[in-house]
Predict the structure.
Amino acid sequence: MSLLAPVFLLFGLLAAPILLLYMLKLRRRKAVISSNLLWQQILRDRQANTPWQRLKRNLFLFLQLLILAALVVALARPAIPVPSLTAGATVIVLDGSASMNATDVSPSRFEAARSRVRELIAGLPASTPVTLILAGQPARLLATAETGRAAQLAALQGAEPDPGPVDWEATFALAAGASSATGGAATTVIVSDGGVAAGRQVYLPGPVKYLPVGADGENLAVTALSVRPAEKGAQLFASVANYGSRSHTAILSVYAGERLIDVRQVSIAAGKSQDVVLSGLPGDAQGYTARLSSAQGGSDRLDGLSLDDAAFTVYRPAPGGRTLLVSPGNLYLRQLLESLPGVQSFSLLAKAGSEIQIPKDRYDVYVLDGRIPREVPPGNLLILNPPPNPFFSVGGTIQETGEAKVLPGLLTRFLKWDDVHILQARQVTLPDWAEPLVEAKGGPLVFTGETQGRRLAVVTFDLHESDLPLQVAYPILFSNLIQYLTHPANLSVLNGASGEAQLSLSGLAGETNVQVQPGGSILIRPAGGADQALVTDPDGTTVPVQLDQGQAVFSATCQAGIYTVSYPGHADRGQDAFAVTLNSPDESDIRPLGSLQIGGNSLSPQRETEIGQRELWPWLAALALVVLALEWWLYHRSRIFRANGQPGRGFLAGLRDRRRERG
Amino acid sequence: MIFDETTLRKITRLTLVSRQVRAGLMKGERRSVRRGSSLEFADYRNYTPGDDLRRLDWNVYARLDRPFLKLFEEEEDLAVHVLLDGSRSMDWGEGEQNKFGYGLKLAGAIGAMALAGGDRLSVTILRIGNNDAGRNAPGALDLKYGPARGEANTLAALRFLEGAHPAGRTDLVRSLKDYLSSGQRPGLLFLISDFFSTGGIQDQLNGLVGRGYEVALIHLLAPEEIEPPLAGDLRLVDVETEEGQEVSVDGAMRALYRQRLEAWRQEIRAACQQKGVRYLGLSTSQPWEEVILEELRLSGVAR
């Protein structure tokens, strides 16, 4: 054992004032007796009249000196050497992913990891800087090179696991940064169940060690759930996987909204999965849930991880994308529109010089190829080779169409313009409301925007005067534009890293199926604009979200289930919905990994090879507290007995009397 | 009265026993060292009022119709000294257990026995205190009764005792010395005290025994002195000397006290045995009649 702050032992000198105070404190009661003769003889025998003798048998003095001794030794910080994983600066990465909620170790993997970290911290030499990073969504820095043991433990105590997958890139970036800050000398300790996706290219300076948690990998999960339109009603697809090493039987219940529509028993062999397809669903429900429960029924625990025992999805068949092509004759366009899924295409031949008679039927999108009717019908417009119109001003023609630039954005993903050649285009001054998608030197070639309550997409040249229809860019651009015009997506999933909104592919097929993992973000951008959205979570709690310039990011998606979004003041738009569901094979596969693949290195669980120091001061402080409480208690008891006029009775005798009285 | 008539009658049936035969001054009921025997007839003389009727020769009275007293060989009186410690330390103990009160009763009983037996009784309450001149003098506060003889004096003796009260200090050594030097006739001496007095009384016992006294020590202690109800850090003040003594009393200290008390009593007892002095160690919790009627007989002081 060693003392880390021996100078504090000097506080032991405080014993002297205590003794002194005690000697002064001996206020004796006067008692008249018949004779002192015998007492004098006794005291002469014992020499008991000296202060030291008098103090010798004082219990309270002994207790107070014991308290002082405990506190002084605690201040001197005695420590015993213990085997430790690390000895110097340490960066602890605590896995806070969904799989750490598994309960195969009691009470949960995360709590087990927390106690491993606590032990690790307790075994570190005093004043060792500890950086604590919680791998979560997003990664969180809980303590930065913290040297105070209490602050380290408080930061650890505040950590909670996330219900979804975690951002390992950000976590490792933080860990690398923290490690570099110590000159690369810090040891990085990853406390995890192995749910770190293998093969990540990460660089961590300094040694990296792995502390595994978790015991058992038995887990069933609903790994996929989707609903799509079919010939008759909607069709639901669910997949249940068994990640364990034994075959399992469970009950799969499928709900449409609150209504139970199917219950079946699924038996899945180890490492296999089973698909369930339900057809002919009414399709009127907005949210669908698939839930696994124990075949034994009751409150039996199904498996180690309950987060993935339920999956959620939303289903809203898009209204049919009806398009009307108004053109003097454009084969390219007609063929393209007819081939797009979910689009009902109609065409109207508009001969040059004749009046355009727009049918009274309503269409979602009017594709106006070089002609604009006198009365523009209500609806979204795709205008090609624009003539003068009420939406923007059109000048002469421009020849400088080369070196066109594609501006990155939602609608220009995967769009390659390099091989596109255009003879000439209409000169258009970009209006305020528009955003360019493709811009040439002379002016915009493609732009979109919203004005007068409708969406417009404009291609400023005639397809016949370009080779665009022959390029790959053609179907990509036009399917994106038609998607933009036919089915304005109010909600979209945000890719956390780039903040870029993704259009789901199923959206192009004419349905909205917005799913996000817990902790993910949703971009709310209602077509037609709104000031506010109301998001109702699965519990029924409604949160108002203010939209800034018609959009906002909603990230409070910790709870799995169906969320609905409505727009106050726009009741006619109805509700949108999105599902928060784990749906992550990485997280559902909760088998604890014996070794970890980090940056091409395989990390095995480490043994304690360094020598740390376990400080004993908390025990001493606790001892001081207990003795203090004991002293207080004894003091009050003795006062009570004195008050009861039983001065001659011993303390234990008093207790016995009291018990007798109760008896 | 310190005790009632019934008790008095019971007591007067007892007679004090002296182990020695002594030379008396007056005719008494005890044999003298002078020649002759009390059974031996000596003479007759006329009855005078006040004479003991038991000595009347009833046969002569029947025959002559005149009262004559039978005179035998000399039978002598016994000098009985009762010394009661009257210091303030004796005023200890509650009610019936008060040492001084208890001592008074014992002294009264012994006195009554002595007077009933025709012995010569002297009672002294030993007290040391400041005299009128303010000087601390032995015997200054002593209360004395007697010498008295004859049963008729019983009431007076008891009244004397009734009027006594404790005061001052005790210095037994000095008191006994003074008593010896006052030229008393040796006889049976009862010393009733708690013996809380500095200085050994062994020498004085030697003096008493050497002068022909037959001594009986009656050692009185109150129950509070045998088992003191004290605890904690105390300043014990002596009621006599008013001197303080600081002591922290706990269980161990009380045990030490008990040991010391027992050893002290043993020392006194041993000293008495050595000198042929009767010793009676009493607690005032013991009924005093029991002491008179049984303990005294058992210890051979009375019969």
